[in-house]
Amino acid sequence: MKTSLFRLLCLCAAAAVSRAAEEPEIIAKARAFLGSDEALNAVNSVRYEGWLIAPDPANPGKETKSAMEIVFQRPDRQRISVRSEKMVEVTGLDGYEAWQRVHDPADPTKWRQTLLGPDQIKRLRANTWENLSYFRGVELRGGRIEDQGAADVEGVACRKLAFFHGAGIIFFRYFEVATGRLVLTETEGGGKIREQGSTVVNGIRFPSGIVTITKNAKGEDTRVTITFDKITVNQPLPAGDFAVPAIGR
């Protein structure tokens, strides 16, 4: 029994060394740009507080501004809250369960709650991993990384990596060759995500804002901006805040 266990440990160690050897070189540089391995590996939760600025569907050409809170927490927990004068929308992920609840802040009795489907759950789980693992370890979740070679992003020499999470969920990330800085992220659906500014918390460099561009039903670009006023690391929410709310709440 002891011999078998020893052999198993040796095989696991050999597999880990093999994965490290196969990892694209730009990943180590990208992680170093954000912080030390010690600081990145110590992250168990990140909480963002700020503002969501998006097109107003009721008034073309105008924008709405809503308070926003985003929490990513191990293992596989996510909670996003968007609050305006007219509506509060909360989306939660708790392992293999996900939900969305909307209510009127002026009248909490006016609400609706929806359980999200398998495809949405898989995407939320992938998104949570992407925000807590800092580009390393997706193969441990059944995914893989593909080095797609050199790429130019508006004159910046980059290395393009594809992070495959299965079920058609792919994040294409462009890292600046010189520094490892993440220049651009694209999704398999054509959405584009750019980080803006930076702030350092717990020895880790975070963006101070994010701009997302997607296509609407008319094929036009829709721009959504999120700005962060406060970022907190490793102060998790209670597990119950991610769980599917009881209908009576």
List keywords for this structure.
249 residues, alpha+beta, outer membrane lipoprotein receptor (LolB), chain A, 20% helix, globular
Q: What strand line-up does the widest sheet have?
A: 6-5-4-3-2-1-15-14-11-10-9-8-7
Number of domain units: 1
User: Superfamily at the CATH H level?
Assistant: Lipoprotein localisation LolA/LolB/LppX
What is the tally of helical segments?
A: 4
Describe the structure.
This protein is an alpha+beta fold. It has a single domain, classed as Lipoprotein localisation LolA/LolB/LppX (outer membrane lipoprotein receptor (LolB), chain A), CATH 2.50.20. The protein is built from four helices and 15 strands. It has a 13-stranded antiparallel sheet with strand order 6-5-4-3-2-1-15-14-11-10-9-8-7, covered by helices on one side. A two-stranded antiparallel sheet has the order 12-13. Strand 12 (199-201) and strand 13 (204-206) form a beta hairpin. The termini are far apart.
